[in-house]
Amino acid sequence: MEVRELRLQTGLSQSKFAKMFDVPVSTLKDWEQERRNPPAYVINMMRTILQYKGMLISQSYVEACDARRKSVENAMAIMLSATNGPDEVFMEVLDSYIFGKITLEEMEVRIDRFEYLGA
């Protein structure tokens, strides 16, 4: 990934990006227009700093978040089908799942035993 791509992913202007890394704007412009090339370690350090600050998100992070979102959606669908909707019981069980106290499989077993219906 080139410096320009890094900067564009942050949404920062050239001047703000240059200031963040204490690089002259003219140097940044030269890097972006490929008149000069920064050393590879500079690009790697920039990427690492941006990831650490949460300004640059990797594709694997996005994929992990998407998988977690789908997993929570599945849990919600299961709970909605086994309870009276988003009541106190629903929210307690969903919280237990989100915070890792129970697994999706444990939730399904309890639903099979009608534990959430008060039966």
Automatic annotation (TrEMBL):
Q: What is this protein called?
A: Helix-turn-helix domain-containing protein
Question: Which InterPro entries does this entry report, sorted A to Z?
Answer: Cro/C1-type_HTH, Lambda_DNA-bd_dom_sf, VbhA-like
What organism, scientifically named, is this protein from? Candidatus Acetatifactor stercoripullorum
MF-aspect GO terms: DNA binding
Residues in HTH cro/C1-type domain copies: 3-38
The record ties this protein, via SMART domains, to: HTH_XRE
